[in-house]
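[Amino acid chain]
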Amino acid sequence: SVADSLRWFSKGIWIADRVGGVSAEKLSILYSNRALAETKLSKWTDVITSCDMALKLNPDNFKAQYRKAAAFFEAGRLAEAASDVDQLLEGLSGTTNSIRKKEAEELRAKI
């Protein structure tokens, strides 16, 4: 279940913090994946918090950037959603990854 996934991602983060030796990139992925589970449960504040942690560890984590902007949108925090998605699109300018750019552009159009 999604709740179980959320619990396991949280446990993985807790263990990684205690044991150490986990790269910032991998820990960022754990936070971003936890944010996905929180998204499925409509826990928008938690999504934003998890994404903030992921981005602190890896500012280039596209999924965390996108999920954070989407969570702001879903929470009705439209100015923050617009700001985040605009930053995301700016970072994607000149990119060859058209799928990511399209996702960000679609979110921007909804805002």
Summary: The chain has a mean pLDDT of 94. The first helix runs from residue 2 to 19. The chain has six helices and no strands. The two ends are 30 Å apart (CA to CA).
